[in-house]
Here is the input.
Amino acid sequence: MKILNFFAAVIFTVILSSAFAYAGMAKEDIDILREQLSEHSLVVIKEGKTEVYDGRGIKPLVDYVRNKDFERAYAGDKVIGKAAALLFVYGGAKYVYTPLISKPAVEVFKKHHVKYRADKVVDNIKNRAGDNLCPMEKKVRGIDSPDEAYKLFDNIIPQ
Here is the structure.
């Protein structure tokens, strides 16, 4: 039985390691993103430097893509729904981590070849009260273009 448990642990470790490798991120980078997201809204690791941003909803992400891009960066956001996923794609993200992602966001990342790692996948992102769909998710229901999503949010999210 001990040998069987040992082999199960080894197999689990190999699967977990390959899942991190598949996401294109080293476990250390995911650990940094996870740790920083416990206190911040958006985290970007670029050229060896960790930048953190705070704010509610998608505002930190909109502000980031107004001025910068995610080229050669690992990014993390506390919650990623379709709206945020479209903005990450608009900003050129290739590697993203989040504790919580929606199925529509997963589809956006797959369509645009963004590698992601998420701790939990949910059907949809809810509003703060938890009784309806997030307002930003409602706004992108019929939008599939990252450019169109950026233009929408650039116009409605104050600078």
